[in-house]
Specification:
- The complex is a heterodimer of chains A (112) and B (112).
- By secondary structure, chain A is mostly beta strands.
- Chain A has one domain (5-111): Immunoglobulin-like, CATH 2.60.40.
- Chain A contains no helices and eleven strands.
- Chain A has strands spanning 5-7, 10-14, 19-24, 31-37, 43-50, 55-58, 61-66, 71-76, 85-92, 100-102, 106-111.
- In chain A, strands 2, 4, 5, 9, 10 and 11 form a six-stranded mixed β-sheet that branches.
- Chain B is globular and about 40 Å long.
- Chain B contains no helices and eleven strands.
- Chain B starts with a strand and ends with a strand.
- Chain B has one domain (5-95): Immunoglobulins (Immunoglobulin-like).
- Classes of the chains: A mainly beta (112), B mainly beta (112).
- The interface between A and B is medium-sized, with 25 and 27 residues.
Chain lengths: 112, 112
Amino acid sequence: SQQGEEDPQALSIQEGENATMNCSYKTSINNLQWYRQNSGRGLVHLILIRSNEREKHSGRLRVTLDTSKKSSSLLITASRAADTASYFCAQGSNFGNEKLTFGTGTRLTIIP
Amino acid sequence: EPEVTQTPSHQVTQMGQEVILRCVPISNHLYFYWYRQILGQKVEFLVSFYNNEISEKSEIFDDQFSVERPDGSNFTLKIRSTKLEDSAMYFCASSGTAVPLHFGNGTRLTVT
């Protein structure tokens, strides 16, 4: 698989359900970040997990990182219609001067 | 909340013409970036800029591309002689001494 791939490519769920997106990467990382992109807009940073962390929470978001499997997952609990967007993982190489390597993204649709 | 602003939102140009894409990063940020996203593809790193010089660039960022911070507030990307394959969404981003990156809403460049 290509570096930085999200799985699934598209996901549709009912409002109120939980959404889980997965990301795999190939090279070692300093950190892994998740971004959201609404249609036609820029990327918005959601959460960052460092390579020495295994799990992180922010509001309805939960991110896990398994460096042995080179994978991460993003869980959005109690989804809302406003969560409809594309979600990307991005490998961070350094703090400051951050060259991010983005994945292919998961298109999430929340059905009201 | 401060944000990165990009102008124009949409630029149409003919092949071979020069274009300048403009960005106003967040004022106290130190690192500046350009990324691009060809329709339906991954977001790709182009270049990072720090302390008035390029700190890193990708293979995409060839001699046709240049960046400048002419006046301490604007950050520009110039494409000297556009090609059809330069058609993409171009995102400017900035960051402080630590992540995350703050992205603008992008400039959609269409080369005809």
